[in-house]
Amino acid sequence: MKRKSLGIRTKLIASFTIISIILTSLSLISYVSVTRLVDSNKWNEHTYQVIGKLDNILLNMIDMETGQRGFA
C-alpha cells in the first residue's frame, strides 16, 4: 500500500492556517477577558461611589439627630 505524501507547499499552508486559527482564538479570548475586567472595574468603582454617598447620608442624619436633641 502506497502512502501519498504531502508536498511542502501543502504542509506550509496547513501549518500557517493552524497557527492563524490558534492566534485568532487567543486574541478573541484575550479581548473577552479584558472586556469583562473593565466591566468589573466599572461596577467596583460604582460600588465605592454608592458607599461614599450612603456614608454622607448617614453623617447628615446623625447631624440632624444631634440638632434635634440640642433643640429639645
Q: What would your notes on this structure say?
A:
By secondary structure, the protein is mainly α. It is built from 1 helix and no strands. The longest helix has 64 residues. It is rod-shaped and about 100 Å long.
What attributes characterize this protein structure?
72 residues; mainly alpha
Q: Taking all residues together, what is the mean pLDDT? A: 93
**Secondary-structure element series:** H
Sheet of most strands: none
Fraction of residues in β-strands: under 5%
Would you identify the regions where 5 or more consecutive residues have pLDDT less than 50? none
Structural class assignment: mainly alpha
Number of strand elements: 0
Quaternary arrangement of the chains shown?
single chain
Number of helices: 1
Radius of gyration, in angstroms, nearest whole number:
31 Å
Instruction: Tell me, briefly, the overall form.
Output: rod-shaped
Termini separation (Å)?
A: 107 Å
Q: What is the share of helical residues?
A: over 70%
